[in-house]
Design goal:
Layout: E1 28-33, E2 36-39, E3 43-47, H1 54-57, E4 60-71, E5 82-84, E6 87-95, E7 98-102, E8 107-110, E9 115-119, E10 124-129, H2 132-137, E11 139-149, E12 160-164, E13 170-172, E14 179-185, E15 187-188, E16 191-192, E17 201-208, E18 213-217, E19 225-230, E20 232-235, E21 240-243, E22 246-250, E23 255-260, E24 264-271, E25 279-281, E26 284-286, H3 289-300
Antiparallel strand pairs: 1-22, 2-3, 3-4, 4-11, 5-10, 6-9, 6-11, 7-8, 7-10, 9-12, 13-14, 14-17, 15-16, 17-24, 18-23, 19-22, 19-24, 20-21, 20-23, 25-26
Length: 316
């Protein structure tokens, strides 16, 4: 897959070897399989967090694997205009191109290994769609969208964006060179990703070669989850089987163990839980039902913005 790679992983910084006696490896708490569905105007997704209690996801709310699908000419689809309030959307493109436009006049394009990080805050309207040339030609489309909750104190801040190019991600490998680790946000063994967050989190895209093992140091106060994008392997010290569409949520400890049977591609994430009440419905994530009701009222009255008259053209 064209997400950022290197010709020789052995030139990359390496994770430290962990002391098996002093390290507390996290057990797998729960394994779930993502059901398939459709989003927006009809593009296929896997709902990665289905069946997992919110307290085990905190500070995350929702994760969709978009695709992987090879569209024929005329088939690529996106989303219609829609609102958000109270959280952040993190869109990570692995294959293909996605254009973005918002009600504040912003817009842009992300492609292989780029991330578009939108802090919705007090509210915004936006649209995500493939560029017209991709609709005409068709092509491969594969990505992720993660919803990161905002703490109560930040829910009504002004919207903002982070445009993270794939080349900005920190790249690491394991002591034996068996893995490529892309750090999108957070900090792993002293290596930081470019994403800036209100709640401390780690976001990693990891590729393990067949037979390779990853012993990943992890902040003890963070939760930890690993979602399989492709391939087969095992998770945790009890070596529970994982494959495409499976999510492993981990218990407590200061390290995560993952091992590949075939080439294994994963999205590994975790963060410091916010531990605040969550009221979530549709495109809004607030603390109370009254705040949800206010969000819908504000949207209906146009307080979250209006749809611009023209679409922002795609730019490379």
């Amino acid at each position: 897959m064209p997400a950022i790679t290197v010709d020789d992983v052995l030139v990359l910084p390496r994770l430290p070897k962990l002391d098996p006696v002093a390290t507390e490896y996290r057990p797998v708490r729960r394994l779930t399989s993502a059901p398939s569905g459709y989003e927006g105007e009809g593009f296929p997704v896997r709902r990665a967090f289905a069946g997992v209690p919110l307290n085990e996801l905190d500070p995350f709310i929702h994760l969709d694997q978009m695709g992987e699908v090879d569209y024929a000419p005329g088939e690529p689809k996106g989303t219609p205009w829609h609102p958000h309030r109270g959280f952040e959307t993190v869109t990570y493109m692995i294959d293909g191109i996605m254009d973005h436009q918002d009600s504040l006049g912003g817009g842009g394009s992300i492609s292989n290994s780029d991330t578009q990080w939108m802090t919705a805050g007090a509210g915004i309207l936006h649209i995500e769609a493939p560029p017209e040339h991709l609709v005409t030609s068709g092509g491969l489309f594969h990505g992720l969208q993660l919803w990161v909750n905002l703490p109560r104190a930040a829910k009504m801040i002004d919207p903002k964006y982070q445009d993270i190019r794939g080349k900005e991600s920190a790249l690491l490998t394991t002591p034996d060179g068996g893995a490529l680790i892309r750090v999108i946000a957070g900090e792993i063994a002293g290596h930081s990703g470019p994403g800036s967050t209100f709640t401390p989190i780690n976001l990693l895209h990891v590729t393990l070669q067949p037979g390779a093992r990853l012993d990943l140091p992890w902040q003890p106060e963070y939760n930890a989850l690993a979602y399989v994008l492709s391939g087969e392997g095992w998770a945790g010290t009890d070596m529970l089987p994982i494959k495409l569409g499976r999510l492993a949520t981990f218990g407590s400890g200061d390290a995560i163990r993952l091992e590949a049977k075939s080439e294994l591609d994963l999205f590994v994430m975790g963060g410091r839980p916010i531990r605040e009440p969550v009221a979530h419905y549709g495109p809004f994530v607030m603390n109370t039902k009254a705040e949800l009701k206010q969000a819908f009222e504000d949207f209906q009255k146009g307080r979250l913005g209006t749809v611009p008259a023209t679409r922002v053209p795609h730019t490379d």
